[in-house]
Amino acid sequence: MSRQGPVRSPLGQERREALIRAAYSHIASKGFEGLRLRDVAAEAGIDHSTLHHYFATKQDLVTAVVDYATRQFWTVERPQGGAGDRLRYQLTRLADMIVERPEVHIVVRELDLRARRDAEVRAVVASREEGWRASLTELFETGSADGAWAEGVDPVAAVELVIATVKGASLHPDLAVDVLQQLGRLLVGSEPGPAQGTA
Q: What is the pTM of this model?
């Protein structure tokens, strides 16, 4: 459990969110190594000495940024159709996000890089990524049982292939749409019918 200050008032919550957005912005523009608490506090309009009333440690702030970034990937919409349709929908949505909101992916990739050298960040990132991995695992297992995938597709390896390809494509927004569409064509056993559009 992270140690966060007892901020419960609307004003306190507003300032806390301002700090999260400022830290997110700093990571997007300067990388994780450019994250300085004093600069974050200044951008949020908060005195540096009071920042720890909202986040007891820098790690607490980083955890909040991870949550802020990963929430942007959430969706309550469930596409119609089989496993292949659902995979295409996910890949299309992710490609659109890479093009339209590249800063989200920059922040997440910066956190991935930091996680390789920082066990605390690694644990936070891994725990938030687990939901995506579990969702893909369920999707590929269902599709495997239904014969949705191209011949030779291994469901376990396919999960990691999707994750790795999305992360790689996020570094190249100009190629992301073509790359993720191609991935869908390689994994899905047959092309969508005429009524199968992209959302």
A: 0.81
